[in-house]
Write a structure and sequence with these properties.
Blueprint lengths: L4 H10 L10 H13 L3 E8 L2 E7 L9 E6 L19 E2 L2 E3 L3 H22 L5 E6 L7 H9 L7 E4 L10 E2 L1 E10 L14 H13 L15 E9 L9 E10 L5 H12 L3 E9 L2 E2 L5 H14 L16 H7 L5 E3 L14 E3 H20 L3
Parallel strand pairs: 3-6, 3-7, 7-14
Antiparallel strand pairs: 1-2, 2-6, 4-5, 5-15, 8-13, 9-11, 9-12, 10-11
The structure holds zinc ion.
Length: 377
Amino acid sequence: MRIDPIELSRELISFNTINPPGNELRCIVHLQRILDGAGLETSLQTFAPDRANLIARTRNIGSKLPLCFTGHVDTVPLGNTPWSVDPFAGEIIHRKMYGRGSTDMKCGVAAVVAAIGNLAKELEGTSGAVLVITAGEEIGCEGAFHLARAGILGRAGAIVVAEPTSNAALVGHKGALWLRLTLKGITAHGSMPHLGVNAAYKAARVLTALETFQFNVAPHPYLGSPTLNVGTVHAGLNVNSVPDLAEIGIDIRSIPGLDHSRIQEHLKAELGDDISLEPTVDLGAVWTDPSSPWIKEVYQIVRDVTGEDAGPEPRTAPYFTDASALTPALGNPPTIILGPGEAAKAHQTDEYCSVQRICDATDIYSRLAARWSRTPE
Ligand SMILES: [Zn+2]
């Protein structure tokens, strides 16, 4: 039976996979059944109660490495503003499918599963395709890191990340290094501050240094310069005590070639020994040379399907993706970010994905997989 990407999008939206807590298992099992039925070899990796990733491969993979397609099934929460539609119904209004996770990125996952599921028989005996469907992407690519650490992915010849790009082919994104900075003091009664050491004052000095912190690296020609933002500052429990602990949360967006351990050493040297740094999210930048032959093929296929040209300058994504974990784990092959959702609608109230774009993405993925299977090593 043919897999309809629109129907499947609606089914995926009907699973509540808001992360936290995620609870992606039922949604993942649903996809496993469909891909099993289409003749792929599937395996499910549970990494927490009610949470699992799915790997599905077309059969009889040849000597050339397979083409990998990846997407996640968890979503962000609904937010405080009430929705004007049911966020789990996948209702279509004016050729747009509404629902939490439609754009980011259940419609992308549905397009991948329909494209490869419907092509599975033709891909048998070729290098074929491998699908990596993850859980827990929205909070630091948890599921993808679990797969990377487990060492069960094998290698891939190229990767398509079906995150929302309005079906444009993007060749990279910055990395993310989130750090928790901790400063210690000595507590005392608020009426006798001279008996304590105030961690809030230490934090204030660190904040001033962070505001003028320089990475001292040349900007990347397309991703620009790295950035640093102080997102959270906490010190003190009650107003009449000297705080003995201060915590600062910082969000660094890195560029290719700027090593995350080097950033941490640089920060320590700048901020002094009195501070401890602990990464809470550590995702490398992703970048593929747009002149690589496979990227040119992708541009051509996108043009054939959508009529839209890649444009004179290579484009990049503003967000990070599972590729930070999966691209190194799969042997650093060329990686493209290309999916039917609209990046501007991701995480928003009344999120939607264009029905036409879901159909186009399915067509693009089918052509990419067919072409990959026909091209010799
Ligand atoms: Zn996403």
